Amino acid sequence: MNWDDIRVFLAVARAGQILAAARRLGINHATAARRITSLETALDTQLLVRRTNGCGLTGEGEAFLAHAERMEAEWLSAQASLGRTDSTISGTVRIGAPDGFGVSFLAPRLGTLTAQHPDLRLQLVPVPRSFSLPQREADIAITVERPAEGRLVARKLVDYTLSLYASRSYLEASGTPKSAEDLKQHRLISYVEDLIFSPSLHFTREILRNWTARFEISSATGQTEAVRSGAGIAVLHDYIAGPDPHLIRVLPGHRIGRSYFMVYHESARDLARVRIVADHIQTIAQSHKAMFAPGE
Predict the structure, then answer these.
(1) pTM score, whole prediction
(2) Helix 18-25 to helix 29-43 angle, to the nearest 10 degrees?
(3) Bridge partners for 264 per DSSP
(4) Which fold has domain 1-88?
(5) How far is Cα 159 from Cα 142, in angstroms, rounded to an integer?
(6) What would the pLDDT profile of 143-183 be if each residue is shown by its tens digit?
(7) 224/244 Cα distance (integer angstroms)
(8) How far is CA 191 from the centre of its chain?
(9) How far apart are CA 284 and CA 107, in angstroms?
(10) Rounded to an integer, what is the distance from CA 286 to the centroid of its chain?
């Protein structure tokens, strides 16, 4: 087997497309396809199912991927042991995160990594959904629950709190609620019920059992913008809404606590690029933990 063939296979498995993998590696599509064919010939088995919209791993491909990633980890470790530390921090790391954490916290704080490691490419995917690490939808996932099963490495990132907020203009026009029951007389905002991807995101039930929203938005940042515009009252992240001078915290006795976790597949444990990104995220989250849970 040729290591360059394996390197192309890893890139295709992670990108889901031969063309995208070729671009990441700086080679043309034909060369990447030829490398895959060479590897399949050497192994006498089909590793990929080629489709018009991309590639999927066969069962044999999934099995070989685990071996290939261990080979990659050993190769990077060997380079590091020879003092070639710069070359170990290269390649692409995709980070999947809830939109609030991804947009408001991670996006402004990841650029220093690419400045320190010019060969490192970061992909931040901040959307309100969960990510499948076994299917390589992300290398690192920020979750709101600790995963209970699978070959995953999980560590608690930081605790955070949420509170009720409204805009100053909304409160001037509609009055300030004095109790949770008073919320029934107000315009309420929450997640789209059938798009909530984790039970821990049912924040509103901890404040008012029969919370009835007139405006549902499947995005934490979207809810924040709606509240800022005067559309109503919502449960918002304190680290996002608290510093905003246009937002007023209401019913301060009602505060909700949650945690973020950082998760990656155990096969990525020894990959230098994943490890350095994970350590960076852990460091910046811990250094800002007072912001995530103010007053705690």
Answers:
(1) 0.72
(2) 110
(3) 140, 153
(4) Arc Repressor Mutant, subunit A (1.10.10)
(5) 13
(6) 988 887 777 889 999 999 999 999 999 999 999 999 999 99
(7) 10
(8) 18
(9) 12
(10) 17
